[in-house]
Structure formats: structure tokens, C-alpha cells
Specification:
- By secondary structure, the protein is an alpha/beta fold.
- The protein contains twelve helices and eight strands.
- Strands 3-2-1-4-7-6-8-5 form an eight-stranded mixed β-sheet, with helices on both faces.
- The longest helix is centred in the C-terminal third of the chain and has 27 residues.
- It holds the Pfam family Glycos_transf_2.
- This is Glycosyltransferase.
- Its EC number is 2.4.-.-.
């Protein structure tokens, strides 16, 4: 079997059919790939949708478990996979029809550890078609080179496919019970890779949903997200220290790019702080903790991607914490009245 696709799902009845429709409409023999569905303790109708697809397609299996979270579920999928390559996709996203063959052709012909591809952020749910354009010559580089050259690469696991033998040799696992559980994993797995390639073709569809986890207004949820942002900054810092101790090629550039990603995450954390009903002294404690690992104030942030006037203004306010405190309650009031939209 050439490919295993791992699809964890939790209360995904509104999305799962679309995701599975995209995965089953591929120009590959069913014997060449399997789709592993893992129900992570859903309480909705998602399991029924999964079973319907399983009954129609002989290459789909369904596994059920008590809720363990995305990281733990992906690790279970990694153990269940039998294919030469493994792909992890979220149940609320989908891919273009008849594109997996393109990726497998490169993976098998060039013997890659990792192949990456572009994503198309969209609020549309029917962008299944894809017209292949000439790709040209794409170089094979090490994972270190890729991390050093690509400051703005995404850290989620759904934009690349991994060679299973290579993955098992690294003994790497997704973080469990963590926010952005694939962020550290992605960096670490590229650090181990000798042969990587990135195809500039938008195969993946990242569905922007107004009801996503990042738009949840529940105060307990927002409090957890803020804590997770802080945790991620500390995990990035730990990873940076680990890389600094090793004699690896392009270490300085890789560390610089990880610091940039950490800064970006803290920038977006500020919008959660506005939505979170906690006192200024509590916010002051959070910022003081971030100062200890030099991710606040935000530095080397404005640049080729984050250069919009709104971003420059908000970053200036966030970087001057007493100015931020001054604007905090008016911003909360405007958000409540829906006069402003926060990330």
C-alpha cells in the first residue's frame, strides 16, 4: 500500500462528508491507499457519516475512542497506518480531486522523506477541481535548508506527506493535550529530513469557518487559548535552546525563523486578551512572563507579510503595554457592540 490518510474527527458532522468526498475522488486504485477515520469521542452524527463512507469504500476503516485530543489521536493513526507514506488531514478541510497521484509520483520517483504543497484558504466548500499547470524544476533539499529558507511556512501537519519508514525512525510524536500540537512536531520532523521537496500547487483547501475554535467567545475557552499561546511561546523557546546546542547546518537562520513564528503567535494572542475578561494586573503578569523569554515586546515582526497599516498600528499599541492598558476597556466595549472585528 502506498499511502495512509489519517483523519481524526470530533463532532465534525458538518464537514466530514466534504472531506471524505475529496479523499475518495482520487485517481488512485483503492488498493493503493487507505483512509483511517478516528472518532475521538464525538457526540454528534459524525460517526454515522463515517460508517456510510466505510460501507461504500473498501479502503476506509473507522476506529472509535474516548476523547483524547488531536495530538494523541494522530499518534494513534500513525500506529495504525500501513502505507509507505502518511498524510494527516483535519476533518473540516478537504483537498482537490485527483491530486494525490501527483504527490505520490514525486514521492516514489525521487524517494523523498517529505513532500509539501500549498493550501488555499477559502470559505467555499466546493473547490474540488484543480487544473495542473507546468511545475518546472523543483530542487530536493534537506529539511534544515527548507526551515532556513522559508520563514513563513505553515506549522500545521496537513500541508505535507511523510515517508512512514522515515517517520518511525525519528520516533517523533505529536504533542498531546497542547495547543497547535503539530507546530513543534513540524519543525522537528523537518530537522530530521534529508530529502524534502515543496510543490507550489494548491492541493489543500483550508476552510475558514466563523464557528471555528479560534472564534469561540466562551470565556473559559478564550482563557485556555491565551494560556496555550503562552505555552507555545515557551515550547518554541525550549526548541530554540535545543537547536542552539546542536551543531546543525543553518542553525542561526532556523532559530531566527522560529523566533519570528513565536512573535507572530503572541501578536495574535493580544486579540484574545482583549476578548478575555481579566484584569490589567493579570495581563501584566502574562506579559512579564513573556518578557523573560524575550518574545515581548514584539520585535522583527513587521515585514514582507505583516506590513498592513492595521498590523503596524496594533503592534505599536501592543508593544507599549501601558498604552495597551489605556485602550483595553474601550476596545472590549467596541468588540461587544460589534463595532470592531478582532482576529
Amino acid at each position: 500500500m502506498k499511502l495512509s490518510i489519517v483523519v481524526p474527527f470530533y463532532n465534525a458532522e458538518d464537514h466530514l462528508e466534504r472531506c471524505l468526498t475529496s479523499l475518495t475522488n482520487q485517481n488512485l486504485p483503492k488498493s493503493d491507499y487507505e483512509i483511517i477515520l478516528i472518532n475521538d469521542g464525538s457526540t454528534d452524527n459524525g460517526i454515522a457519516i463515517a460508517e456510510q463512507f466505510k460501507n461504500k469504500h473498501g479502503n476506509i476503516s473507522v476506529h472509535c475512542q474516548k476523547n483524547k485530543g488531536l495530538g494523541a489521536t494522530r499518534n494513534i493513526g500513525m500506529h495504525l497506518a500501513k502505507g509507505d507514506y502518511i498524510y494527516f488531514i483535519d476533518a473540516d478541510d478537504y483537498i482537490a480531486f485527483n491530486t494525490l497521484e501527483i504527490l505520490l509520483e514525486y514521492l516514489l520517483k525521487i524517494d523523498l522523506d517529505i513532500i509539501g504543497f500549498s493550501t488555499l484558504p477559502t470559505d467555499k466548500v466546493d473547490l474540488f477541481s484543480y487544473q495542473l499547470k507546468p511545475i518546472g524544476n523543483i530542487e530536493v533539499i534537506t529539511g534544515n535548508e527548507f526551515l532556513a529558507k522559508n520563514k513563513n511556512n505553515r506549522l500545521e501537519a496537513w500541508w505535507y506527506i511523510l515517508k512512514r519508514e522515515f517517520l518511525l525512525k525519528t520516533n517523533l510524536k505529536f504533542e498531546e493535550g497542547k495547543f497547535m500540537e503539530d507546530a513543534i512536531f513540524t519543525i522537528k520532523i523537518f530537522l530530521e529530513a534529508n530529502r524534502t521537496m515543496f510543490l507550489p500547487i494548491a492541493i489543500h483547501r483550508y476552510v475558514k469557518s466563523p464557528n471555528s475554535i479560534m472564534n469561540n467567545e466562551d470565556q473559559t475557552h478564550i482563557k485556555k487559548v491565551v494560556a496555550d499561546y503562552v505555552s507555545l511561546a515557551y515550547r518554541f523557546d525550549t526548541l530554540i535552546n535545543e537547536i542552539a546546542k546542536k551543531e546543525i547546518k543553518d542553525a542561526d537562520a532556523i532559530i531566527k525563523n522560529i523566533k519570528f513564528k513565536s512573535t507572530v503567535s503572541i501578536y495574535f494572542m493580544f486579540f484574545k486578551l482583549i476578548r478575555l475578561k481579566i484584569s490589567i494586573p493579570k495581563i501584566h503578569e502574562i506579559l512579564r512572563d513573556l518578557e523573560k523569554i524575550n518574545v515581548y515586546p514584539l520585535t522583527n515582526f513587521i515585514g514582507d507579510v505583516y506590513n498592513h497599516r492595521k498590523i503596524k498600528i496594533t503592534a505599536f499599541v501592543f508593544n507599549h503595554k501601558y498604552l495597551f492598558y489605556l485602550f483595553l476597556y474601550p476596545l472590549r466595549a467596541m468588540h461587544k457592540l460589534k463595532l470592531i472585528k478582532l482576529y
